[in-house]
Specification:
The chain is an alpha+beta fold. It has one domain: Alpha-D-Glucose-1,6-Bisphosphate, Chain A, domain 4, CATH 3.30.530. The chain contains 4 helices and 8 strands.
């Protein structure tokens, strides 16, 4: 897994992983709530999966139920999925300037999909380190799930 950081005040992180699966399978894992729940911290994803629509992630942290929310900004099947989101776990007010832009980019070559996730608007080093650790875990879980259950996902 590769990770790059832009060290501006509000930094951007980028993490990539190679998944031995075609892009349509990885795309399905990124946009299917039942699959998302398996690799993304047991979160329940709720959306109609259309540009401009709301996307919510409901979960539990330290015994408390919470909800992250945002808007789907781009859906280019098998290539790009972009949304913004706000999380109460970030400890910031629910205001547009506190939303994090997230972009998943998929590039397939010879049955291997390189999935790159970019997250922006990260204020400060502690949150940047936490975001990097979270994405590393999520991408590794996704890779393991897709490669182990490739036949099931299809």
């Amino acid at each position: 897994m590769k990770s790059n950081v832009n060290s501006m005040k509000n930094s951007i992180i980028k993490s990539s992983i190679e998944i031995i699966a075609p892009s349509y399978v990885v795309w399905q894992a990124l946009t299917t709530p039942e699959i998302i729940k398996k690799y993304f911290y047991n979160l329940t994803a709720i959306s109609d999966w259309k540009v401009g629509s709301q996307i919510k992630f409901q979960g539990q942290y330290e015994g408390n139920i919470y909800e992250e929310k945002g808007t789907i900004l781009e859906l280019n099947p098998y290539k790009t999925f972009r949304y913004n989101y706000w999380s109460p776990l970030a400890g910031m007010d629910d205001k547009p300037e506190n939303y994090f832009p997230i972009t998943y980019s998929l590039v397939e070559s010879k049955g291997i999909t390189t999935l790159t996730v970019t997250q922006g608007n990260i204020p400060g080093e502690p949150m940047r380190h936490q975001a990097e650790a979270n994405w590393k875990k999520v991408l590794t879980n996704l890779k393991d799930l897709v490669e182990d259950e490739l036949i099931v996902i299809r």
